[in-house]
Structures are given as C-alpha cells and as structure tokens.
Amino acid sequence: MKLLVTGGAGYIGSVVARMLLDNGHDVTVLDDLRTGHRAALAPEATHVDLPIHEAAQVLTPDAGFDGVLHFAALIAAGESMVRPELYWRNNTVGSLALIDAVRAAGVPRLVFSSTAAVYGNPLELPIPETAVKAPTNTYGATKLAVDMALTSEAIGHDLAAVSLRYFNVAGAYLRGDLAIGERHDPETHLIPIALEVAAGRRDKLQIFGDDYPTVDGTCVRDYIHVVDLARAHLLALTAAVPGRHRIYNLGNGNGFTNRQVVEVVREVTGEPVPVETAPRREGDPAELVASSALAREELGWVPEKPTLHDMVGDAWAFYRTHILEQR
Ligand code: UFG
C-alpha cells in the first residue's frame, strides 16, 4: 500500500514507519520535526516537512494514497491542563483538517492514534471500548473529539476508519544496530524519567501523588511494548472496512502502580533510583487498565512482549546506547 504516516519522526510513528517499510509498503512521512527527530526518520521513506493542517499539499487526488496513519499530536496529559488551547488546535483542529484532506483526495482508510485517556476515571476495570468516555484531562478530550469525528466520517463519507486507544507505551524497537526509543524533550513520561535517574542524569524521580485509591496510593497504568503496538497498526490497516469506524483498546490487561514501575526500573538497571512524593499532577486518572479482548478477537492481535521487564529492558538498552553514549 502507499501510505502517509503523520508524526513518523516521533516515538511510535517512527517504529510503525519502519515496520511498514519492512513489510513492503511505500511510506511517506509527514512531520514538521517540531517534536519529532530527524534521526528517527527511516531513510527509505519520503519525508515531507509540513504540519498536519497542510497535509492537503501531499494528499492530492493524483497521489494515489491507500491510507493514512495519523500519529502527529501533542501528548503530555499534564501540559494539556495548563496549555489546553495548544492541544485543541493541534490535536483536534489539525486532525479535522487532515480528515478534510483525506476526503478530498479520496483516500480510503485512516488509522488514528487515540488514547486510554478518553475514559477518565473508569467505572469498570479492565476497560472495554464501550466504557463511559469522561476524560479527566484536555489531552484525552481532544482525542475523543477526533474519535467522534471519525465515526461521523465513516458513516457520512464511507471512510474505513480505525482508532487504536493506546494505554501506556514503553520499550524500544531494537534490530541489529537500529534502535528507536523514546526521547521527548522535555521528557514527561514515567519510565524514561526513571531511566534518566538510574543513569545519574537526574538526582531523583518525583512521584505525583500517593493518596490515590490504589494498593500503594500511586496511580496504576497498563504498559504495552511499542513493537506490539506497532504490529497492531499493520493489522488495523488490513482490517479497516469502508463505512465503519472500528475502535480497539491496546494494553496488556495488567496494572502497575508508579512505585511498582520504579521497582522494575531498579531491578533492570541495578541502580537505586531515589524517589520523593510530590503533589498530584492535574488531570491524572487513578487507574487505567485495558481490556484488549476485541483487538485480540477481531484483529488477531497477540502481544509478544507483555512483561514490564521486557519493556524496561529494551528502553534501557536504547537509552544506554543511543542517548548516554551519544552525549
Ligand atoms: N509520573 C510521575 N512522575 C513523573 C512522570 C509521571 O509520578 O515524573 C506518573 C504520572 O503522574 C502518572 C504515571 O506516572 O500517574 C504515568 O504518567 P505518564 O506521563 O508516563 O503517562 P500518562 O499515563 O499520563 O499518559 C500516557 C501517555 C498518553 C496516553 C496515556 C494512556 O502520555 O499519551 O498514557 O494511559 F494517553
């Protein structure tokens, strides 16, 4: 297939772009490198340096794209509470412009990076796709708005749409000399920050809140390996059906508290990783654990690296070889 990957220089988008290329697809990456990294761009892909609201310049009717995988977005839940306007403009308005371009160009399918953050504080655990959607942060709200637009687009204009609701993505794609991992600037995610502490680049990790209604008072999240997540995108591309918007949660169904995550980082790295308790971060749901039964059933998705040790081990290998050694 001829595919456009928005955000293909980012953490997840760049892993998916590589896997698409490895599977014989023709890949164009649209990424303005505002948060993405030039080094993450696959050399075999065509790179278009444009923001998503200008995607129509590439998605022309003559270009013959078979599909779009839409990753480009702002992703920090905490930041979305203090700068909400950025999130609405980039994530929602930008995605609506992209959907307009997809329609105008007659592109038949679109796979969208949605999020567990659409559910807010869930009433049922593990969370099925049918659970109440009540996001507690602006990030989740901006993604939910796009999910709803895609449902309308599928019905109204026959788009084959798939939303993949990621839970917490971790790990790295390691293949020979190639390693693609997480490198946000500034980093906001728990595992890479804990690795920075393990590596001596920060003196301690702050744990945001220890009075949540969970086993040790810290938030619970469900972690998924980036390679397992990437494989779900390839499956979604072929499972997409015109006129339908399919939605799948992607996680492993196992919840880990923030303190348990830090413990795994200590075990994997052999470093002490000092922590201190800090106030809650605005907008954080207490517990997010996925039911991915639908993805398993309808996409045939089976995670190959479901353990947190695997994810932290791969993230640590990437961090040591590609971040520490290159400074
Ligand atoms: N946390 C800390 N200290 C830190 C960083 C994070 O205690 O320095 C805590 C957070 O408060 C939260 C947990 O670690 O309780 C996980 O936080 P992350 O920022 O790593 O991830 P989030 O759960 O906020 O969000 C991530 C992605 C979203 C995605 C969501 C789905 O960033 O894109 O997972 O669960 F939608």
UniProtKB/TrEMBL annotation:
The NAD-dependent epimerase/dehydratase domain, residue ranges: 4-251
Pfam families: Epimerase
A biological process from GO: galactose catabolic process via UDP-galactose, Leloir pathway
Enzyme Commission designation: 5.1.3.2
Family: Belongs to the NAD(P)-dependent epimerase/dehydratase family.
Pathway involvement of the protein, from the record: Carbohydrate metabolism; galactose metabolism
Catalysed reactions, semicolon-separated: UDP-alpha-D-glucose = UDP-alpha-D-galactose
Annotated transmembrane regions: none
Endpoints of the signal sequence: none
The protein's name in its UniProt record: UDP-glucose 4-epimerase
